[in-house]
Amino acid sequence: MNEWYTFIFNTGNEIPDLNEKSKIPKQPKFCLLCSFKQIHVIYLLSYFSEWLELSYNSIMNVWIYALLVVLETPLQDETCFILRHLFKIISNVAMNKYTNEECKNGLHMISHIIVKYFKKTDQAF
């Protein structure tokens, strides 16, 4: 998990403050994402759930959106659980009074995608 964090957020082994300007996170590249096996996509979505609980940065919206784009359906039960957990964490981050409006819009868009695209019509899945 830390290796993925290091790769995505361009950091050392520690989990730093994501608002630190000296480290510029990598943008997800479509060719890279398409080369991932589905298990890697699922693991990364799970990791983002954990990272969102620790700290939040708008680049996370971009990565989560990109991972959802390459997530294949039908979903297995474990993947549904991960998406449910991600939805709950995103909802909590979006309700945080310190999250700016632009980031909230991105978080709401991801929530909407999880609910609508993956045919989850209720928040509890």
UniProtKB/TrEMBL annotation:
GO BP terms: spliceosomal snRNP assembly
- Point out the signal peptide segment: none
Q: Name one GO cellular component term.
A: SMN complex
Q: Which domain of life is it from?
A: Eukaryota
Gene3D superfamilies from the UniProt entry = 1.20.58.1070
Q: Which family does it belong to?
A: Belongs to the gemin-2 family.
**What protein name applies here?**
Gem-associated protein 2 (Trinotate prediction)
Native organism is Myxobolus squamalis (Myxosporean)
